[in-house]
Amino acid sequence: MNVFWTAATGVLAIGIVAFCVWRAISTARTPQGSVAWVIFLLSAPWFAVPAYAVFGGHRIRSYTRSRQRSRALTSTLKDQAPHPPAEVARSRLAVFERIVNLPATGGNSATLLIDGHETFAAIFEAIDAAKHNVCVQFYTIVDDATGKALADRLVAAAQRGVTVRLLFDGVGSYGLSRSYRRRLSEAGVQIIDPRAARGPTSRRNINFRNHRKTVIVDGSLGFIGGHNVSDTYMGRNPRYGHWRDTHLALRGPIVAQLQLIFAEDWHWGAGDLLTSELTWDPGLQGDDMPAVLLPTGPADATEAGAQTFFAAIAAARKRLWIASPYFVPDAGTLAALSNASLNGVDVRVILTGKIDHYLPWLAAHAFFDDIRTDGVRIYRYQSGFMHQKVILCDDDLALVGTTNCDIRSFRLNFETMAAICDERFACDIARMLEADLAQCEKYDTPLTEAPVWIRIGSTFARLLAPVL
């Protein structure tokens, strides 16, 4: 009997490993990913199989089906774009339209919100003025002074009859207390707890993160950017000091697109369709900025996250400035950066100088030499921690949102960027980044001259690049 069970267990184990190997070969998005998983599964199956169960998948069928059910509204928005942009702007944004299947529209306005005090002052003011609906989504919410300030506004809004909905990520907000959630629920705030829901960070999909940071008020005013809800993002954490981040306040048709993505995320988590419960006429703004929202994630039919970044790089003719706290790009992005620089584009990558996560910080060093050889300039922000996600292309195109320059943002996270083609807005972005560059040091140290722990650490960290 023992021999039978031993043999049966062995056959079952071989079958599980074989199935994982087949899945890795047939579903991985890159040959390198397939090879890496196959080697890991065959050489250390007892560790690799559980790891593959958590990190190996790249699609979420439930979310794909959810998105398909909301395509009718997407088509309506596309077919009835209230104010198409001018032809020049439309041509600049056309590639982004095709990537995300949303239309570029005119009639928008975008206001830069620099750092936490400015951002949360604007968000809190908007929530306090809400009359009908407030939709809130953050990757991280912490039950500290900033988190309590948000809760106070949401509770007050719900108590005066506003419909308030809150989404947060189960990994990013892992430590959010039950008392915090209970207080909101008892006040009438509708909450999706991803630890109990079917979303991307449900128990079997913890490798997929909803990294979006969105607030929408009455369907007419939207906010997106890099800030999460925590005292750290207000610069109150002595470990990081000043927290450099960027958010946007948006008005116009792009807000309807932002609200659509919130509705899709809500439907995925709760099964409720919000299309008839929200306002879908945000109106037109006199600034008339052409813009399109760029939602991306692992449920997309194509590599939309990586394609968006690649398209932004390819759009640059004179200047390409990228601000991101993390730099763990894929091979295509590295090649695009090098090619842009070799074509005479002023390519600058602005990174944080402080460390919050050691593995991505170390991995970045493995990529610097390749692009620096081709003329790309790398800067490190020295006046605190820089967390913004901003791309400036030439003098007329800018992207702001939640996407980092790393493979996790490209393939594993649900992200949102706003692409705005407007010289006035691009000028504001340029001034902001010039001020940031004044607080940076140019980083020219080759990996061979870096400290030993960085040389060794970057080599191993690079192997983990697909999941960092």
Automatic annotation (TrEMBL):
UniProt subcellular location: Cell membrane; Secreted
Q: Which InterPro entries has this protein been placed in?
A: Cardiolipin_synthase, PLD-like_dom, PLipase_D/transphosphatidylase
An example Gene Ontology biological process: cardiolipin biosynthetic process
Main subcellular localisation: membrane
The PLD phosphodiesterase domain, residue ranges = 206-233, 382-409
Q: What is its EC number?
A: 2.7.8.-
Pull one GO CC term from this UniProt entry. plasma membrane
Query: Any idea which UniProt keywords this protein has?
Result: Cell membrane, Membrane, Repeat, Secreted, Transferase, Transmembrane, Transmembrane helix
What Pfam families does the annotation carry?
Answer: PLDc_2 (PF13091)
Species of the source: Roseivivax halodurans JCM 10272
Name under which the protein is recorded: Cardiolipin synthase
- SMART domains, per database record: PLDc (SM00155)
